[in-house]
Amino acid sequence: MSYSAEEIRAALENNELTAYYQPQYDTLTNRLKGAEALVRWIKPDGTVISPFHFIPVAEESDLIMEIDWYVTEFACKTLEKQNLMPQFPISVNFSRRHILEDDFAERLTALVDKYDLPHPLLEVEITESAMVGNEDRLLGWIISIRKAGFTVAIDDFGSGLSSLQFVKDVPADVLKIDKSLFSRNCEDEKERIVLESIFSFAHRLRMKTVAEGVETKEQLAFLRTCDCSKIQGFLLAKPMTEEAYLDLCRTYKLADEQTDILQLQNPTVASNLLLEVIFRRYPLVIFTNLTRNTFYMMAYQDFTRTTCPSTGVFDELIVHGSASMHPDDRELFASTFDRKRLLEDYKSGMREKRLITRQLGDDGIYRRVETFDYFVDNNSSDDVLAITLCENLPDE
Ligand code: C2E
Ligand code: MG
Ligand code: MG
Question: What is the Cα–Cα distance from 392 to 49, expressed in whole angstroms?
């Protein structure tokens, strides 16, 4: 059933609306990390009405904005009551209508400052679907909120027509992964591949991730092998009253000792740390399947001016690469990294190859570049794989 705008407005004015809090936990340590505020309508007889029965009607007019601001103030009051060190951040849902609110960041600042709270304690959630059609305004809106010191999360990522291209351009801090992306309980191989890619994509864009709607042990176990920052879902906790949430925060305050992330010896954490260093050290990293003549680039940071395809046919990449070399180095480069030659090198027991060439830089000047090719063994196929790392060398 759904209610009329008048009924909802009356409920708002009678203070019948309140926020429940659903805790979010650290994926690896299980520690409480914060909560999401979710509006509830508590009728005078105690019946709890879910937002599904009144948010869609409220969304038809600016009534939704009043509700969102009301919930935000409620969350500020909860944070004030926490009075704990450290306080746990709360994220609040905002309708797409707020994107058109010119003074949004100022209004949020004024409200949070009224309760004397540090701005990073409040996170603004906006759903993925709100972004479509509002792209130009949205970027400025998000930037102004972050400038004011709040964090911004993209909610329900994967529930609609998600565009990775668009997420790449949105300067948000957090990506909330919708439960529809693990509806097959993470037991389906394709589902796992998609999830792994999304978490690694978010990590590389320096976004934190929250998996929401986690209901089963299987999902949790798989998400722990991914690079997922936080977990929110019925498996760990359902949305609860403010009072229950504050009790939970108190118990966590007691168990406040910090976990040493390295003690967990989690392979995903370890690999990501290592990757971070490799990407810093080598501006260009390429994965190649020599048997199948394919490649894809893992990193390409200001390497040369010439744009290069990020995935495709390896033989063509070598043609492309040698064209950017100094004319005297082209032949040597093309013959050293000729694919058939690399396959023979591999067969003859070679495990790495390296070459220094001169490559045209952004400024039209040739610079020395060292290319390392490492043949890598893998358990899942007989194909010959190689990883290429390229490094700009200092001038001689
Ligand atoms: P949301 O922001 O994506 O919030 C997550 C929803 O998923 C919540 O539903 C939560 O109870 C539910 N959920 C959490 N864990 C699980 C799980 O393990 N399994 C399942 N099946 N569901 C889970 P809720 O509280 O009914 O809210 C529904 C939606 O209503 C929210 O989705 C949000 O879009 C909207 N909403 C809630 N509060 C507000 C608000 O204050 N303002 C606005 N504009 N929208 C709100
Ligand atoms: Mg939300
Ligand atoms: Mg959501």
Answer: 61
